[in-house]
Amino acid sequence: MTSLHDTTHRDFASDNYAGAHPEVMAALVAANGGHQTSYGADAWTARLQEVVRGHFGEYAEAFPVFNGTGANVLSLQAVLPPWGAVICTSDAHIHTDENGAPERVAGIKLLPVPAPEGKLTPELLDREAWGFGDEHRAQPGVVSLTESTEVGTVYTPDEIRAVASHAHDLGLRVHVDGARLANAAAALGVPLRALTTDVGVDVVSLGGTKNGLLFAEAVVVLQPDAAPGMPYLRKMDMQLASKMRFLSAQLVALFEGDLWLRSAAHANAMAARLAEGLTGAGVELLHPAQANGVFAHLTPAVADELRRTWKFYDWAHGTVRLMCAFDTTEQDVDNFLAATREALTAHV
Length: 348
Hints:
With 348 residues, this protein is α/β, with parallel strands linked by helices. It contains 13 helices and 10 strands. It has helices at residues 22-31, 43-56, 68-78, 93-96, 101-106, 122-125, 157-169, 181-188, 230-236, 245-255, 259-280, 300-306, 330-346, and strands at 61-65, 84-89, 109-113, 139-146, 173-178, 203-206, 217-221, 293-297, 313-314, 319-323. The strands form 2 sheets. A 7-stranded mixed sheet has the order 1-7-6-5-4-2-3, with helices on both faces. β4, α7 and β5 form a beta-alpha-beta unit.
């Protein structure tokens, strides 16, 4: 069949633009033969539980879902009472990019806090962690962190531990939106549990599609008593796959070996190359490029010139967001940098 697009072209708009990793596609083919019990009672989902426990500890349990928004909504709904609220940053994906899904689907009140570099601290948490026992206020019940953050920065284990400890002291659960958790772990050179289980996190939205999967994410419950209703809520929220083996097979392919780390580390390296090249060309970066995203100040004329060839997103404060993926090449980056330098010269 003739392809409907140029399979050699790669953009910088989102790591979601990338296709599926060849090893993931091979895993789907391997999972396809014969019959397997539906709704998660299959060999691949059983294997996924073993893989997840290897990364996150003996009590971890994975619930595969279709997408990141579903993972976030389900995670928060499962650890929060109906009268509860979630404290997050004002940049949080659950607040800015999920079309009100936490509010509309789960009925959750969000309490956003402006946060420098996209990261919450115990002090910032206290701005909304109040009113306990006041029946007129939605009760803070969960803190949600994004790792890596929406502005490309990375929480260290100590930073997450400080927030989680303070949250637990207040009686709050801790959720991590880990759409790019692999990129953060790769950037810091630590295992996945160092940013989650070991520092007090209760539940994780474990990302896959931003790191080479076709369609699969997972809610990973780290504390056995944190989300007792998860199996029922997953069905209610329309995230229970009948042929779950195809979700689980992708997640097993990504996390059983080191594919998650290889892919994330490569994306991070391409972002570092891009950031260094832009800085060398005199382009100002809005945030440190700590994972696989670069946020750069480009004039509208320069940005429009580059958009003739590449797609990328406008961001806040007159910046653009440039994302690198597992399949971004050095040549892709160098071509973009060469075009940027040319555009800067033409639009001085």
